[in-house]
Amino acid sequence: MSDSKPISDATLTIRVIKSFPYRTAKNLVLHSLDLTRLTVRELKERVKNEIIQGKSGWKPYTAFAPHLDAMKLYTKAHGTKTQNLIINMEDKNDELLFRDDGKTLVDYGCEHETEISFFKLADYEEYKKNPEDKW
Known about the structure:
alpha+beta
């Protein structure tokens, strides 16, 4: 657990994934989040709004943003890193997926400096069948 900041004033990194096989992703860092109150639904909407508002570098993602519908824990601060560079696939039954949009982030074990993947679930399901990277 990262003790540098409380979970009521946390920083998260959201890995917005556009393509799994080509590993196309961009990170969005969000500061001053209260993980005890912020729900998965609210986080999804906030990230989509940040993308659509055209923040620097997000133009290639604006048309894709409405299709983002799933989140999954990638890693926690000072935790072990996954071998996959874009999404954590080390949980066999997708235990790290945030399945209930009404739950708070702390309910899913998020803490300060947690990294979360945000993606289109159908694309993830397809990638899991044959997780090969293309170049």
